[in-house]
Amino acid sequence: MEYLFDQWGQVKRKLNNKHIVFFFDYDGTLTPIAETPQQAVIPRQVKELLRKLSRKPNCALAIISGRALEDIKDLVRLKGIIYAGNHGLEIEGPKIKFESQVSPRLKSVIRNIYEDMVNKLSKIKGVLIEDKGLAIGVHYRLVDATDIQEFLNIFSEITESFTVRDKIKINEGKKVYEIRPPVAWDKGKTVLWLLARQQFLVGEDKIFPIYFGDDITDEDGFRALKNKGLTIFVGEPKASEAAYYVRNTEEITQFIKKVLELE
Ligand SMILES: [Mg+2]
Fold first, then answer.
1. If you measure from the C-alpha of residue 162 to the centroid of ligand 1, how many angstroms do you get, rounded to a whole number?
2. 44: nearest Cα among 17, 86, 76, 8
3. Ligand 1 centre from 263 Cα, in Å?
4. pLDDT score for 182
5. What is the pLDDT of residue 166?
6. Distance between CA 127 and CA 130 in Å, rounded?
7. How many angstroms is it from 226 CA to the middle of ligand 1?
8. Helix (H) or strand (E) run with residue 76 in it
9. Known catalytic residues?
10. pTM to 2 decimals?
């Protein structure tokens, strides 16, 4: 993994004359990680730069998040860009509207688990249960260390019988578990699906994707774009499928500014 700005000369050449498709994760990428999901607000300067990027000819912009589609749209509020919610289970953008096929049976499994979580986990201080429609986010960043074991016990009690029967899938993120339907669809597949559409519009050899992400689910995005574009991990360098890293959101803004200056 190399520091992105050490390789700027090389990166710049790759971008030359391309139609750049930006993929940004939201939490921990466009915003610093916050104590609760509600507190993760996109800094005004970042938003302004994204707006400029979305208006630049030969650039397209997609936000690809684990949050529900409506939630992520509401947080970013930029027009003319692509939003992928629930890790791509629901996508909306200019001339795009997609919802992954999830059977009513699997949807009701998610509903039942949600109610169970609310009932049985509410006694543990600090647990935040996020209803994301097609999925559930269970945040435990604010749970006391002394309560973690009990939290984990109840959590697995509720989910175990569903995971062994493949009725749900559990993703682990930064102090959050995500319960979702067991469909073979992730950020990587979403990215490739969106790229295929763009390629159709502007030609395959013109397209150049850039993916920024900070968490485990972003590794699918990095993997999908191996040797296809720029993959950039956000945070201190570690083992990752990404080829490059930047340290934080601030450095992403520096990168965007450099791209905006390009012809
Ligand atoms: Mg993230």
1. 26
2. 76
3. 30
4. 95
5. 95
6. 10
7. 19
8. helix 69-76
9. 25
10. 0.93
